[in-house]
Amino acid sequence: MSEPILYSFWRSSSAWRVRIALELKKVKYQQVHIHLFKEEQNNKKYLDLNPAGFVPLFVHDGHVIPESLAILEYLDEVYPQEPKLIYGDAAHKALIRSLALIIITNIQPFQTSRAVSQHSADPVKQDEFPKFFIERGFETLEKRLQKTAGKFAVGDKLSLVDVCIPPQVYQSARFNVDMNKFPIIKRINEELSKIPEFVKADGLHQPDTPDELRP
């Protein structure tokens, strides 16, 4: 197999979760950095690859795969080594997906610069809009985790849910979400922050991270 390429941006939570999975599975890959603030995602060359103009985009063995969830499921199939992100019987796999989708579909799309700018030109309303969806989504996730969480989101084994949590907690801080309202999510995120692969994939440790934001 050829070495895969991940089109990424340091702060993109969608790209961030894919980087975590790649690190956990010990996959060697190249990064191509798409600077969203400079609108490089709208360059014709990139749009020819990904007409949606989003990151991440994953290219491997001639396959061009957009959308983080599709990429994560592809990684689980093509790189079946542990940790598996989606595992167990059909019901358990559905449980994992349903928890992860709270972040992937119910929260993340509403905090993108594209969504926020379309909602309002007022800076105050631009912050209130994603904060509403983050808090609403976290309320749902917190209640679900009361029944599923152990050391991690689903018992004591890493899953798809866990790769989604750190990027979203980071984004939540941008919109002044009080994580003390969500103690289970906060605790799991703190546990994940101790894992070297999560640290390496962190948005603040990427080649394109602005120098002033590096720890």
SSE map:
Layout (H helix, E strand, L loop, with lengths): L4 E4 L4 H12 L5 E4 L10 H6 L7 E4 L2 E4 L1 H11 L11 H15 L8 H7 L3 H26 L11 H15 L8 H10 L3 H6 L14
Parallel strand pairs: 1-2
Antiparallel strand pairs: 1-3, 3-4
Helix pairs in contact: 1-3, 1-7, 4-7, 7-8
Strand content: 5-15%
> If strands are numbered along the chain, what order do they take across the biggest sheet?
2-1-3-4
What name does the CATH topology of the largest domain carry?
Answer: Glutathione S-transferase Yfyf (Class Pi), Chain A, domain 2
Provide the helix percentage: 40-55%
Catalytic activity: 4-maleylacetoacetate = 4-fumarylacetoacetate
GO cellular component, one term: mitochondrion
EC number: 5.2.1.2
Domain GST N-terminal: 2-83
